[in-house]
Amino acid sequence: MSCLTQPSIDEQKRFWDWHWQHWRDRRTINQWKDQRHERVLQFVGSVAGHRSRILDIGCGPGRYTSQLARFGDVTGIDLSEEAIANAKERFAHITFIAGNLYEYPFPAKHFDIVVAQEVIDHIEDSAAFVDRAADVLVPGGHMVLSATNKFVVDRLDERQFPSQPSAHIGRYFDTTGLKRLLRRRFQLLTLETIIPIGHLGILRVVNSPRLNELFGALISRPRLERIKGQFGLGYQMVAVAQRRP
User: Fold this and answer.
1) In terms of DSSP bridges, do strands 186-196 and 234-243 run parallel, antiparallel, or are they unpaired?
2) Going by C-beta distance under 8 Å and a sequence separation of 6 or more, which residues neighbour residue 9?
3) CA nearest to 238, candidates 171, 162, 173, 163
4) pTM
5) What angle do CA 219, 226, 46 make, to 5 degrees?
6) Does the pLDDT at position 107 exceed 50?
């Protein structure tokens, strides 16, 4: 599920260009990601001010970035020129940049909100990523971040989480690891997990159709999923953190 050697930036760029060229085959747009994005939007709305300046890191072709524009002025950046060309064609009212987040000369302390959906899983230096996100935020600004939950992804089978090409970086955190990482520059306000899936190990019991049918007679399915999420059993972690002064 993760690469053994570190791919270069050029190799990563070629991978993400290929990824967005084949997004349909790779099921890049799916119900899980839509559900995650809806939760991210709710969190962004909870911290946005009047016409917030928002940076969407790893924006891809802009499908989700476009929905952030309801909260303010949005800039999207992605390593893939393929994805950014698509985004510029579809969403001309948004600023899109094809480039390396660490090299692009964003002004310091400029953005009110940074959004990063499933980005921190796919980079070579997670600490440097957190530092860069903090540096472009105003003091007291917010980062809304989603990441794959290692506890769950380690308990998915090949059909749910297929092998990836060698240029794909996949480094996953559990809730404890993500909290520790964010706290180097941020005050963590909220961290929850959503989308409880998985059928290996303990999740074979927790997500058993028979057991869930039994619980379904007592509580609603949405409530049952929220309970699982509270116990860290969701496939996606969604966090809101505030940059320290």
Assistant:
1) antiparallel
2) 79, 100
3) 173
4) 0.89
5) 135
6) yes
The Cα 227–Cα 98 span in angstroms is 40
Per residue in 1-35, pLDDT (tens digit) is: 444 468 888 889 888 888 888 877 777 777 888 99
- What residue spans define the domains of the chain? 9-196+233-243
* Rounded Cα distance, 237 and 235, in Å: 7
3-state SS, residue 239: strand
The predicted model gives 154-176 an average pLDDT of: 78
Other CB atoms within 10 A of residue 47 CB? 18
In CATH terms, is domain 9-196+233-243 a member of 3.40.190.10?
Answer: no
Phi/psi at 74 (nearest 5 deg)? Answer: -110, 135
Instruction: Give the C-alpha separation, 141 to 53, whole Å.
Output: 10
Provide the phi-psi class of 89: left if phi over 0, else alpha when psi is between -120 and 50, else beta. Answer: alpha
Closest CA to 237 of 143, 119, 149: 149
Residue 5, both tokens = 């050697």
68 token code pair:
């952030």
Question: What confidence score (pLDDT) does residue 28 get?
Answer: 75
Q: Return the structure tokens found at 148.
A: 């794959």
* DSSP single-letter state for residue 149: B
Token pair listed for 37: 């994005």
